[in-house]
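Quality-control log, excerpt.
Job 1 of 2 completed; input and output follow.
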Amino acid sequence: MIIVLKRHASETDIAAISDLVCSLRYQPRIIRGVEQTVIACIGDELSNRSLEALSSLPSVESVFPVQKKFKLVSREYHPEDSVVNVSGVLIGGGNIQIMAGPCAIESYDQLRAAVVDLTACGVKIIRAMPFKPRTSPYDFQGLKLDGVKIMRDVKAEFNVAMVAEVPGPAQIEMLRDVTDMFQIGARNAQNYDLLEHLAHAGRPVLLKRGMASTVEEWLTAAEYLVVNGCPQVVLCERGLRSFDKATRNLLDLGAVAVARQLAHLPVVVDPSHAAGARSLVPALARAGLAAGADGLIIEAHPDPVNAFSDASQQLESASFGAFLKELEPWIELAKATRKQA
């Protein structure tokens, strides 16, 4: 159940309604907007008493059920597209963003060179990864704290927004002052303890879909963030594990369309991890935008052939402007389509 309070309801009203919700054996989650407050009521509607009686209270505007497991991210609760603000850069609601950067931070010179190339062609959010959770403990794991320092130095020079993956709760504080948007990687997509901790960090979150997650599991993971106080969530489709080795992962374009239909959160596509080969990235990028994505996140490196990780799928950052030029008709079509919706 969702309880929408009237505009400018007092703190006394909010506290009183929360107490009533608790008395009916639900857990209230208070979500404060600019003008209105919403209380999400977590509990079993079948065994607990109905909350609909609360609609008669003077400070309550409406009470309505949401049947899906993901309630606050659903379009039943919020019919309009949400717009996520990443340090002044907007994603969603007709704002199409192309985020790019290396798979991992390898050195100061490498990250700085990538940022020079990418910002020169208009990229406003840089992928900057000091921590790299890997399947094998013998693979490059990132520069970790040294990488965070490099992020800080490059950010101070270019004043550009950065998105960084956080592998666990212990790294949140390390990254907080230099990261404009946290990323939850595919391996952590259902790490609910991490999701709850990250929801309190005060930053937008890019939530990748798990390697074998259903759309419902993906959206329910987003619900963990929203219900714990982080409404600024961007969903990211990066491909599913498949029997077919023609691509690294199977890019699920149907899931992009379904997620946009069911949820109000922006959806972006990661064609790099889906492709596994740089020659396929342009085609999958076009397909993602055509399927309804609100943007892309792409790996780009100054010297991709000699990259420490994912060498085969990273685009050359010096050529990224040409890539964007070829992509421009699809970006403009995506903008026009979102405005008509």
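Job 2 of 2 completed; input and output follow.
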Amino acid sequence: MKVKTQSCVVAGKKTVAVSDQEIEWNNKGTLVQITRGGICGSDLHYYQEGKVGNFTVKAPMILGHEVIGKIVHTDSTELKEGQAVAVNPSKPCGHCKYCLQHEENQCTEMRFFGSAMYFPHVDGGFTRYKVVDTAQCIPFSSNADEKVMAFAEPLAVAIHAAHEAGDLQGKRVFISGVGPIGCLIISAVKTLGAAEIVCADVSSRSLSLAAKMGADTLINPQHDDLALWKAEKGYFDVSFEVSGHPSSITTCLEVTRAKGVMVQVGMGGAVPEFPMMMLIAKEISLKGSFRFTTEFNTAVSWLANNVIDPLPLLSGEYPFTELEQALKFAGDKTQAAKVQLVF
């Protein structure tokens, strides 16, 4: 069955369009009518620079990996037409050594929505209709707020980062960089039992959002003194670095207590001046955090059951036909945290 759709496509730097396309559903997998999607930092990079890291757009590609929708047709007996679902953008191979160990986020053949890593590129979810593997569809109650449920993917990233830190019950936590992911990490660690949450950012707007998301103390490292947190080899049991900036990495190592844990979430390039001796001497456990595994299902459950409220982070909504305006607004960090497209 051929299905006509309209898709939000990037073809290069500052080159985007809403294009008419045709897809085919052949009774395998699930055909989803996309209803809403959140714009992520990678979508902005593809728009602003035509690439993410070394992955350059070489042909028109559909953007987006934070999407929800409703089932149109499915090959599953457990799902039904009209059912609301969050769409997991991860499609692991299922047979590599990491998939077999339930570490699917490390899959060597991962196909992730809206990625120029491979060529042909992997199309994303910013389209009115999309065929996905049935396993990628995580149902939720039709009574749930779609604005809330569209946060499933970034919340999954935050929960995974929190899990990487280990047991957070009663722990003192430092979060450096409180954009949307940093703010969702606040909610995640609070839900998982953190006793104290201190957040740092150079943006007063981001810090105000962090307060709404549950931070106990706010710090602007450009003019606030962190000596108290650095004393006696550090104060915090766990730190999360969520900006990728070299100075933020150093700060996290300075304020994390000896034998503590630092989770690196923020992405960035090489850090030539990385304070290696501080990491060694304080015996800090440095952990990376990348995407998620089962945390996507956890995120859907938390959002559907009002465990956390992500809506303070929602800065704007645009019809998908106003794609470029939405991307421009989302790229203005003086105004925008999370921006959603409505299909």
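Post-run check on job 2. The first helix runs from residue 41 to 49.
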